[in-house]
Amino acid sequence: MSTRNVEDMDIVQLEPLLDPNDASRSSVEEGRESIKVEPLEVLPFICLLLQHASNTFNTGAHDFAIFLFLIEVFRDTLVPASLVGLAAKAAGLLLSGHVGGLVDRLPRLTFVRSMIAGEKGLEAVNYGLFLVLLGPLRNIAQSAFHGQATSLEVISTWTILLLTIAFSAMTSLAKTGMTVAIERDWITTIARGDPSHLTVLNTWMRRIDLLSKLLSPLFVSLLTTFTGYIWATTTLLVLSLATLVLEYWWIQVVYRGFPVLAHPEDDTADHDGSSVGQEDRTPIPKSIMDKAAAWARRERSDWAEFTRLPIFHSSVAIATIYLTTLSYDGTFISYIKAARGFDDAFIAIMRGVCVMTGMIGTVVMPFLEKRIGLERAGAWSIWFEVGCLSPVIFSFFYGIGIYGEHGSTWNSIILFGGIAASRIGLWAFDLCQLKELQLALDSHPRRNRLTALQISLQNLFDLLKYALTLAASTPRQFKWTAVVSWCAVVAGAISYAVYLRSVRGHLVHLEWFKKAC
């Protein structure tokens, strides 16, 4: 393996990695001892980015394709798409904590490889099911969904739909495992607690997330436009299997290139006397009821501990944002296709615009952190998002055209422009909150399990979103879900203000008002 390191790379964005002390420290980081961190080697660092890019691209393509295919097959209802999202988020809500516990206990490389294999395999199976749904059953699936077909056709359609729902839920759990393992555990371990390293690594990973959000739906849309749905599905199936091999190799290079990843987790007890291995030393329950009771006790204990931590209010803030239909997911896409008459190509372009504005947010965040500190940067970001989304709500009630038509130009500008601008605040806040979480749980013996509880919170609000869309299941009712979405973002901003006061002791500097007077 090459010994060439990051110091030899002519990449401006990596310069903070060379000097761990050049970034300003927030109030949460004050008092932390400076840790000398070795520069990162180029090959494993690049392989880390390649693996993450491949994983997020395939996941993004799968998520976009599933909803797009369901909308194509079941044109008159949002229920199938909502059921897929509902099942995935319910599984995440109940089992994310358990998945995080596995990250704490299992060898890092073994766990990640298992998640890669599971994720890619489940995606391939889902695409195989859609080959049937979009092929032999395409002309009768919609009527069969409503029971207006022969018994065999109804059973076949519902069987494939239920299998799609189940496999999508399992894919979501595998995605959670990858998120906790790579973006939380591996990144924090590689950074070795250095705040400037965390900022740079998190920023690179988030930029890849955003690029994947831009390219994956565009890729799927181009496939469906120029090759049709059958060939698009076949291509995605082959791509999932091919990238499985590549990601296996890339993650192996990363693991060997950063020896710190091979070190076992610290099993020493924390201040409360708990440890990573504590649950492994308890008697193993034998019956299913005993296992369920043990799981419930463990979940209750973990949630009780998590809610007592100051970071909990920050986690609630980022989680409430997930109760939104004002993003390019299945429900919003269904609305703008059916009620506003926009086609797949336009949707992909506007989603790309949102990704580019989100990329601006990843540039703004490090700048804000250096100027005003990490916590205040988070506050500025989330309230900026609230401000951008406020006029968007009015676009659902004024200036709208006939059902199925675009409506007035100014209405479309406010709708799509406001959502795009809000992505700057959203992604800047996401980076701020992620770093706060990493620093708060850095030395905790069960940091990955508690980190996964934040994902459970996010799944809870995402679950509420799908329940909301099931209640308002027609595109004509979508405007009320938009109002609820805006209220959720405001609630998140208020929750973050509670966190800000707990760590800083105040919300605003009174001397600013004294100077103004």
From TrEMBL:
List the GO cellular component terms: membrane
Among InterPro entries, the record links this protein to: Ferroportin-1 (IPR009716), MFS_trans_sf (IPR036259)
- Keywords, comma-separated and alphabetical: Ion transport, Membrane, Transmembrane, Transmembrane helix, Transport
Q: Which residues form a coiled coil?
A: none
Tell me where it mainly resides.
membrane
Q: Which residues cross the membrane?
A: 154-174, 237-255, 306-325, 345-368, 380-403, 480-500
Membrane topology label: Multi-pass membrane protein
CDD domains linked to this entry: MFS_SLC40A1_like (cd17480)
**Record keyword Transmembrane helix present:** yes
Q: What is this protein called?
A: Solute carrier family 40 member
